[in-house]
Design goal:
Structural class: mainly alpha
Radius of gyration: 29 Å
Oligomer: single chain
């Protein structure tokens, strides 16, 4: 009977170890994804700023507007 208890404890420990390893892998993947999203959002913000600088303001005088190429 005691061998069944030992086997149950070993199986539970192995299961927890597997879950721990999977949780660590998931955490690392989430960190990598967050870094990628941060890079992409910074690139989009820079592109939006460049676009805003390139487009003339609607209330700017006609002399200040840059003709479209």
């Amino acid at each position: 009977m005691s061998w069944m208890l030992v086997a149950a404890v070993l199986l539970a420990t192995a299961g927890l170890l597997v879950l721990g390893v999977l949780a660590i892998r998931l955490w690392l993947d989430v960190r990598a994804l967050a870094k990628g999203v941060d890079r992409a959002s910074r690139a989009l913000a820079a592109a939006a700023e460049d676009l805003a600088d390139a487009v003339p303001a609607a209330n700017a005088p006609a002399a200040e507007r840059v003709p479209a190429a």
